[in-house]
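Q: I'm writing up a methods section and want to include an example of the input and output format. Could you take the sequence below and give the corresponding predicted C-alpha cells, formatted cleanly so I can copy it straight into the document?
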Amino acid sequence: MKYILFDLDGTLADSSEGIVNCFEYAFRRMGAAPPPRAKLRACIGPPLLDSFRAFCGGDEAEALRGVRFYRERYGEKGWRECVLYPGVAESLARLQAQGHVLGVATSKPQRFAERILRGQGIEGRFTAVVGSREDNSFDDKGDIIREAMRLLGAPRTQTAMVGDRLHDVAGAKKNGILSVGVYGGFAAPGELEGAGADFVAEDFSAACRIAACENFSE
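A: Here is the clean output for your methods example:
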C-alpha cells in the first residue's frame, strides 16, 4: 500500500491522561460527579459530542456544554498530556524512507491534532492531516478518511487505514480501503475482529509492516 492513513488517539499516541482529565474537568464544570476513569477511557476514539450525548441521556444542550468545557481545558493543557507509543517515530521514518505517503485521519479537531503532531516532532512525516471541525460537524470517520484520501490523491486499491477502534475499521470499509486494527490503544478485546478488520496487529510496528505489506508471509 503506497498510501497509509493513521488514527491519532490510541494509535500514534497514548493520549488517555489528557482526555480523561478533560472529561473529569467538564463534568465538574457541569456540576456533576465524573464517571469512573475506566468508563471515560472507553470513550476515547468516537466523536466527542457522541460521548457526551450518551452521558447526558440525549440532552443536546447539556452535551454541547460538556464539549465546550472539555475543550476549555484541552486547549490549555490537555493536548500536552500525551506520549507516542513505542516504535511510532521509528516506524513512520522507515515507511517514509520506503516511499510510502502518510496521512492522519482523526476525529480530534484538526488544530489540536496538528498541535500534538508538532509537539511530538512527527508532523513532517505526514502529507495530510484531517480532523473534525470544532463546530462538531464533519466528525464521521468515513468522511474524514475520504477527505484525507482526496488530499493525498490516494486510490482505494493503494490505501490502508491503521486505527485502534471499531470506528476506524468502519470508516475504512465505507471507503473500500484496507483496514488494519492495532491493539495497545483503547479497543476492548475482540473489538477490532468484531468490527471486521482485514488484519489485526498487537502493536504499532507490526501494524505498519502489515499496512506496507512487509514480511507478508509472516
